Amino acid sequence: MNLNLKKVSVALLVACSLTACVDDGDDGQTGAAGIAGVDGTNGTDGVSTFVTRDDVITTNANIAYAAYSDSLISAYELKSAITTFIATPTASNMQAAKQAWLAAREPYGQTEVYRFRVGPIDALKDDGTVGEEGDGPEGKINAWPLGEAIIDYVAVEVDGDSGPETPANALTDNVIANTSAYPTIDAASIAGAFEFGEDERNVTTGYHAVEFLLWGQDLNEDLAGAGTRDNSGGQRPVSDYANTVGDCTSGTGNIVTDNICVRRGQYLSAVADLLIADLTPIAEAWEPATGSHYNNFVAGGDVSLAKILEGMGRLSFGELAGERINIALTTDSQEDEHSCFSDNTHRDIFLNAKGVQNSFNAQYTRIDGEVITGASIYDLLVVEGSHELANTLRASLEATMSAAAVIDTKAKTGTPFDVLIQEGIEQENVVAVINALVQQTDEIEQAIDALGVTAGDLRQDTGEDI
After folding, report:
1. What are the pLDDT digits (tens) for 302-355?
2. Angle, CA of 256, 249 and 76, to the nearest 5°
3. Which of 17, 169, 179, 404 shows its CA 20 to 30 Å from the CA of 357?
4. Strand partners of residue 37
5. What are the φ and ψ backbone dihedral angles of 298, each rounded to 5 degrees?
6. Which residues, in sequence order, are CB contacts of 70 under 8 Å at separation 6+?
7. Alpha helices, DSSP H only, in 315-376?
8. Cα of 198 vs its chain's centroid, Å
9. 424 burial via Cβ count (<10 Å: 0-12, 13-18, 19+)
10. Is residue 457 included in any domain, yes or no?
11. DSSP letter string over 193-206?
């Protein structure tokens, strides 16, 4: 086993043991030895009077560590699948690499709720110091839309903007094809081209760079914004990675020099290495007992409690309802959907919403099936007298998950997000998710007031009129 991966696995045991200290499982709820609940009975209401704010904060931190560690473990598994594919570029190995990418997105999507709180994902600098929100590695890990034209070949016409915002910031050709400017493709050269010309569309790293290199652009008949889109993702041919002489392509039937396939494989491998490198310090910062951020966070009292709620609200409203769903809906643009190459946007929506629900319920299911749980915000609201609000917010979160599940199911049965956002198709299903997210944001604000903590504006992250 890789030593770094082994370290993550061992450290997860620490997270599990810490979470168990505040477990409010069945024995504590209904067992004969259960602690008296707020109704004066033997725990029959399922909430212990001994649940404290510090319990809630510690559980949240333990779950954050588990989710980021799962993301890191999945990134290692993705790199392994990519290595196999590059060495032996068959259709089955390409599919295995795609499946590894999809699997890696599952835990990471649930970590998005830990943004917007000056944590490691948003504020941890490359030198290990903590800066301000926006200084962290989030952009290098998950930035989108991707300006894919800076990485590899693209179609002449696409549904949306695949290039940089400023034409003057475009590279001469792309990194893979530009052998003179980029004679060597490695982690350093790829990182050096990130946001080339200080253009945020010039993204060269992260999950979506890997996605593009595996799937290619999602092209169909709707190039001019009219007509019905198909239900498939990108169709990059396996021959784009051919390692036999004369078989290398840049698109089906477009034979190119063999070194292009070699360079494409080098890019894919290096960008997977960068993903691991960027996720590692985040998981380490959240590591129980030894992580600097973990220790500061669990000792943060009401400041940390407020950050939990602010992250939940800001992801719900501005980032998810606004930037990730409403913009794609109102512009009807594939380039503005989160995972536009793989058509995996339905999972992004579902998992981001799930991350908010995880924070409220204090429960996370790890990639190996183990459930980590503990004292929750729901418990705290009940203990502190806001029973009705606790149930109302829980119901709103469940309503959001139900709406997101509709999007998820439709995509899995042949109607992906980029089809749902088209006018005259099934936009009402997308609107239902937005409305549910707005509703839960209203109630998260009420929870902030009820608990008497101070958080920032939950609606600051989008200019969208929702």
Report:
1. 999 999 999 999 999 999 999 999 999 998 888 788 999 999 999 999 999 999
2. 120
3. 17
4. 48
5. -70, -20
6. 107, 366, 367
7. 327-331, 345-361
8. 24
9. exposed
10. no
11. TTTGGG-TT---SS
* Domain-embedded: residue 458: no
Asked, for residue 211, whether it belongs to a domain, the answer is yes
pLDDT in tens, 371-396: 999 999 999 999 999 999 999 999 99
Task: Indicate the number of domains in the chain.
Answer: 1
Q: Are 436 and 319 in contact (CB under 8 A)?
A: no
Contact indicator for 97, 78 with CB cutoff of 8 Å:
yes
Given a contact cutoff of 8 angstroms between Cβ atoms, the answer to whether 361 and 378 are in contact is yes
Look up residue 227 and give its DSSP letter.
Answer: S
Domain containing residue 308: 3-451
DSSP letter at 166?
S
Q: How many whole angstroms separate alpha carbon 378 and alpha carbon 387? A: 9
Cβ pair 153, 251 in contact under 8 A: yes
Task: Using alpha carbons, select from 434, 432, 452 the residue that is nearest to residue 389.
Answer: 452
**Closest by CA position to 190, among listed 168, 218, 212:** 212
CATH of the domain at 160: 1.20.1420.20
Tokens of 220: 């169909």
CA–CA gap between residue 75 and residue 79 (Å, rounded): 6
pLDDT digits (tens, 9 = 90+) for 451-466: 999 999 999 999 888 8
User: Considering Cα of 365, then 366, then 369, then 373, what sign does the dihedral take?
Assistant: negative
The torsion angles phi and psi of 363, rounded to 5 degrees, stand at -150, 135
Has residue 464 been placed in a domain?
no
Residue 383 half-sphere exposure, CB side, CA atoms within 13 Å?
20
Residue 428 has what DSSP assignment?
H
Contacts of 421 (CB under 8 A, 6+ apart): 328, 329, 332, 337, 427, 430
3-state secondary structure of 441: helix
pTM summary value: 0.88
Which residue is it, tokens 């959240």? 286
